[in-house]
Every structure is written in structure tokens, then in C-alpha cells.
């Protein structure tokens, strides 16, 4: 190609400092190979020569009709009639690809050039990063993730908790793949994760819904059941608590002495005042006529029963008739099974006994006719709406951290039953440890404070103590 040496010199001057410019003998030639059968098209190939002992070949995706190819000009024959726009586009491709090959060579090391197909791999990484993202998922199965799997296998967790930990693993794998776009050698390493990297991961968690649209290949490589949604502070805090537990396991087992959380503090959860229904509302719900909808009537009974024993929904759906012992419900909360398990015993009042009596002879060993947790939550919202429990309540938007006003039925869920049990009991006895013994909270639990409402009635009682 005319003025090839001038072109190369310009590239060198652009990429090197003035005192680094030396005699540069690399050349790039474009050519094609035509089979004996005279194909109608051939791929444009390139040969990079850097002295007698260095020659590297690359086959591009660009096709050209061999009949219009001119080996002397390394392009379309000037004497052949050819569309001007297409000719210019083709010549521009040749020039750009030649320049890219030279730039890659200049920035490469001897070690790079010893790898098989190094030139083709480098070009593909630059031109088609989305293709290599899928391939890079294999690299995420590193020592870090092997140890994470070992940690999860040794952990005595419920299937649901293990699913949460596995979801966090997928997030970290996608973060690793995303980081490799700018740094192909990036890899999570147990000893090298620090506060700075955790902050970068936090930023990634915030941006992941937008990155999903831009880098879909990452999510195809490490898929989830649904596209990522925007995560608020509370959700990200929970993710980091899972990772912190993993590091605690690694520290306790002398796998690493690194503790990135010594300088990375997990922020406080954004929580508002607990929302629950009072005893009058609960009783109105129990006696509301749902005879026209047996399905909702059954789930209403289960919800009210949950309001009377205060257990988490995960424990509720696992209750059987064996948990009914001497007029009380006894169970070990799933959250305590991993550490120091405690047995919670909640005596049943007359209303709870009446509800159980309705279903005593049905549904085999199940205590009540439970359905899937999510369907249970949907039913609760429908029941509240039908029963007119739609008063406005103030909630905290976990994404923005701002207050919002919503109808009670829209925020009603199985956890509202647990709050109803704790909140109404606390109003009566004002002793968090006594109420906590019935809900399964440990003494002095910070989590329990979310179920307490320091309302006007309690404040008045406190002030009276000064009389």
C-alpha cells in the first residue's frame, strides 16, 4: 500500500513517547487466498511481519469478490467499476484493521506473542467484547468461588437461605465479568478483596439494572430467573451481610486473615415505624363475611392465626399437628437452628383454638391448609381490600429512603401478622424481653425494636412514673 512506512511512523508517534521512538520494522499486509474452485467470495487476511522470525496471521470477517481484488494496492482494483460508497467503506476497513493490528503489536509483550492465536484473540476481545464475556464465565470458577461453594456446603442453612447465598454468588460472578471488560485479568481473590473493592461492588449493585441492558451477555453467562431490579440500601446491606458471614467462616477456618469488613462498614437499614393492625381490626377481619370465597376465607383464618402466635411465615408453613403440644404451639425458629437453637412455646388463646378446630380433621399432618408463601401474600392483600382495611399508612421507600403514603391493603403481608402479634402484646406488657420470648427474638435483639411502637399511650404511662 502506498506510503505504508509513513502510516506506520504516524501510528508509532501517536502511541509512544518521543524518546521511545526507535526503528520500527513491523509491516502489515492485506491479502486473500483463493481456492482452486474459485469461490465467489474470500475473507480478507492480514500478515503482520516484524523481522525474519516474527510473522503472525489474522483472518478477518470481511469478504471480497476475488475478481475485484488487487494484490498490488491491497484493495479493490482501481480499474474495476465499483460502487464508490462501497469502495470507500472497504478501503476504510482495510486501513482501520491494519492500524488496529499495529497498535496491538506495539502494546504486546513477548509473553503475549507466544500464546497460540494471540493476535486473533486480542482483536476479537477489542471488537467483540460481548462474545468474550460468555467465555469468561469459566474463569469465574476460581479459588474464591470454590471456597464460597465449600462454605455454603458446610453451612447448616435452610434451602431458602442457601438460595439467597447462591444469588449473592451470581452477583459477584457478574461483577467479576463486568470488571474484566476494562481489566481482562481481574479476578476476585480472597486475600485481595478490600474496602475499596467492596465499594466498587456496591456501585455495581446499584447500576446493575442499567448494565443489564448494555451488557446482556454477562447476564446470559450468569443468569438469574428475572432481570435485576433496582436495589435499595436495605437490600444491599443484606447482600454484604452474606459476604461478611462468608469471610467470618474463612477467618475462623484459617483460610485467610484478610477481613475487608474491618474498614468497610455496612450502613444502617432504612426502616420506618412498624405497621400493624390493632386488636379491633384483627377481630373485624376474622368475622368479615367471606362465605362467597372459600379460598380467601381459609387464608384469612390462617392470617389471623399467625397474628395470634407471631411466628415467621417460613416457620408457619412448616407447622404440623406435632407442633401442637398441651394447648400451645412449640417450634424451633429456622433462624436459630444454625447457631444456638431455642424452642419457642406460644400458648393458644380461645380464638386460635377455634381456628384450629375448623381444620382439625383435614389436610393430613399439616396444621392448617397452607399455600405457597407468595400466593399467601397475594391473598392477604385481597382480604384486606375486601374487608375495608385500606387506611393510609406511612412507609419508607427502601429505594429512595423517602416517606410514602399507601393504603394498608397494598403493604399488607404475612410479616404484618408477626408485627401485629408483637406490637399489640408490647402495648399490653411493655416488656420487650417477655414479648421476645414468644416471637423467638433473642434478649436485647436490635431487630425486635422494629416491632415496638413507642406510641402516645406508652409515653403517657412513662410520664406518670414521675408523679
Give the gist of this structure.
The chain has 467 residues and is mainly alpha-helical. 50% of the residues lie in helices and 10% in strands. The chain is built from 20 helices and 10 strands.
Structural class label: mainly alpha
CATH topology of the largest domain: hpI Integrase, Chain A
Q: Give me the count of strands.
A: 10
Give the topology string: H per helix, E per strand.
Answer: HEEEEEHHHHHHHHHHHHEEHEHHEEHHHH
Mean pLDDT, all residues: 83
Cα separation of the termini: 101 Å
Rg on CA atoms, Å: 34 Å
Broad CATH class of the largest domain = Mainly Alpha
Helix content: 40-55%
DSSP helical segment count:
20
Notes on the structure:
The protein is mainly alpha-helical and 467 residues long. It folds into three domains: 4-127, no CATH class; 137-262, no CATH class; 279-464, Orthogonal Bundle (hpI Integrase, Chain A). The chain has 20 helices and ten strands. The strands form four sheets. A three-stranded antiparallel beta sheet has the order 1-2-3, with helices on one face. A three-stranded antiparallel beta sheet has the order 6-7-8. A two-stranded antiparallel ribbon has the order 4-5. Helix 11 packs antiparallel against helix 12, helix 12 crosses helix 16 (373-386) and helix 18 runs antiparallel to helix 19. The chain is elongated, with a radius of gyration of 34 Å. The termini are far apart.
